[in-house]
TrEMBL record:
Its main location: membrane. PANTHER family: BIOPOLYMER TRANSPORT PROTEIN EXBB, PROTEIN TOLQ. The chain crosses the membrane at residues 75-95, 171-197, 217-236. InterPro entries: ExbB/TolQ_transport, MotA_ExbB_proton_chnl. This is Flagellar motor protein MotA. The keyword Transmembrane helix applies. Belongs to the exbB/tolQ family. Pfam families: MotA_ExbB (PF01618). Residues 1-22 form the signal peptide.
């Protein structure tokens, strides 16, 4: 439930710029309507030298908005939803993976000191009070200490697989959005091309402007889908690399824990 609430909060954060832009647009439209009712004295139009018109530079968000409208919101909206949901899941995974990171060297030193001072129970208290998958694996291994070192190793291996599955949870959704976004873009392109050919058939003539305009609108959905897939692929690769690093730490720390328990058993 906590992860679901976090996912909705991240989605709200990602949607807040779009909502604020819509509110600003509505405010500007209202301001234009109120200014049209006010009578303004005629002012002499400024002279334009050599018929040169200086256009205001458009902002990045304005360009994105125009391209979104040109590509037909009916086909661009699903691609945008894939981006928002994919980023929400990716950010939730990144936060979770970063919180799962543990200083294994420091934890091993604390466990070894606890074993020397208070035995297995003291070591359990140390691992139970530490967050992260490495500490959870240590706890499972220490709970099996009375059954022998072999059972400790089996317990560590079994519970390590469980922790690995928890770390990889949610990656399948990011992979789904990576595959789905270009597909939706291609679908919009194909539908747009069909519409362009229908317009050519209805006109009875191949007009370059008609064909070029239809193709441009159709290809915008493909570009949007590819951009979304590229962005999500970067986050996906980061999550995979982070999981691999955590798994390597778990394996190295588990081997070190077994060595510590063997030495403790020999000196006991």
């Amino acid at each position: 439930m906590r992860k679901l609430i976090t996912l909705f909060m991240l989605t709200g954060i990602l949607l807040s710029p779009v909502i604020s832009k819509a509110q600003d647009a509505a405010t500007d439209a209202a301001a234009v309507d109120t200014t049209e009712t006010v009578e303004i004295a005629p002012v002499a139009a400024p002279t334009i030298v050599d018929d040169e018109i200086i256009e205001e530079e458009k902002g990045f968000h304005q360009v994105i908005k125009e391209k979104f409208i040109e590509g037909d919101p009916a086909y661009m909206a699903p691609v945008l939803i894939c981006l928002i949901l994919g980023l929400a899941v990716a950010l939730e995974r990144i936060i979770t993976l970063n919180l799962s990171t543990t200083n294994t060297k420091k934890l091993l030193l604390r466990v070894e000191d606890a074993l020397e001072q208070g035995g297995i129970e003291a070591a359990k208290d140390v691992t139970k009070s530490t967050k992260g998958p490495v500490a959870s694996i240590f706890t499972q291994g220490l709970m099996r200490y009375s059954e022998g070192i072999e059972m400790v190793e089996k317990s560590i291996i079994a519970y390590g697989s469980v922790e690995m599955g928890r770390l990889e949870k949610g990656l399948i959704w990011i992979s789904l959005f990576i595959s789905l976004a270009p597909m939706l873009g291609f679908m919009g392109t194909v539908i747009g091309m069909i519409g362009a050919f229908d317009a050519i058939e209805a006109a009875g003539d191949i007009s370059p402007s008609l064909v070029a305009g239809g193709i441009k609108i159709a290809l915008l959905t493909t570009v949007a889908g590819l951009i979304v897939a590229i962005i999500l692929q970067l986050f996906y690769n980061y999550c995979v690399a982070k999981i691999d690093s955590l798994v390597n730490d778990m394996e190295d720390a588990s081997i070190s824990l077994v060595d510590i328990l063997v030495r403790y058993k020999l000196t006991k």
